[in-house]
Structures are given as structure tokens and as C-alpha cells.
Design a protein that fits this description.
The chain is mainly β. A hairpin with a 5-residue loop joins β5 and β6. 33% of the residues are buried.
Length: 121
Amino acid sequence: QVQLVESGGGLVQAGGSLRLSCAASGSIFSVNAMGWYRQAPGKQRELVARISSGGSTVDADSVKGRFTISRDNAKNTVYLQMNSLKPEDTAVYYCNAVAVVDNTAVGMVYWGKGTLVTVSS
């Protein structure tokens, strides 16, 4: 099975920066696409950014120009650099990944438990 462990969340002032990390572990054959989603209180979970195994990225309009997703394939880790944070960025941020487990041939979707990011005014 694959486990995703997030870190880096916390409290930050508006205009500040934070860097989230998510490491995949387990009996992994390969990790394909990885991404970050977030869910604010009373709202649906939404895509923040995603990155392919080859490094191609897509990000939400709401974070474009402020957030940057990246990955280290050797470490099976995805990062989210968040700059110019706004109070509306406050949410639980979830890591996800499509991974292939050893001795299987199909990619499956996995989710982390989430890490809270709070941006104060």
C-alpha cells in the first residue's frame, strides 16, 4: 500500500510564505501524477496544482503566480511553495498521488490526511 505524509502547514501572516511537502512511501513501483488540493471551511475540495511524472504542471487560477508545485522523483516527494499568502488561502491542504504498487500494473489514487494552513490578516 502507499502512504502519503504531508508536512509544512501552520500559521502565517498575510503576505508571508509557506512550503508544503508530501512524501510517498510503501511498496511503490512508480509514482505518476501528484498534486495538491485544498478544502476551506464550508467549501468543496478544489484542485490547487498538479504535476506529472515528467514535470508538466497545471495550477488553479486563484493561485497562479503565487504558488509553485514541484517534485523530486528520487524521493517520491511533491512540494508546494506558497508565496504572497492571503486569508482566503486558509484551508486544509491535501496531497494526492497516482501510484503503482509493486506487483501490480494499474495506477491507483492515494490521499494524504491533510495539513492545515491558516493565514491571518
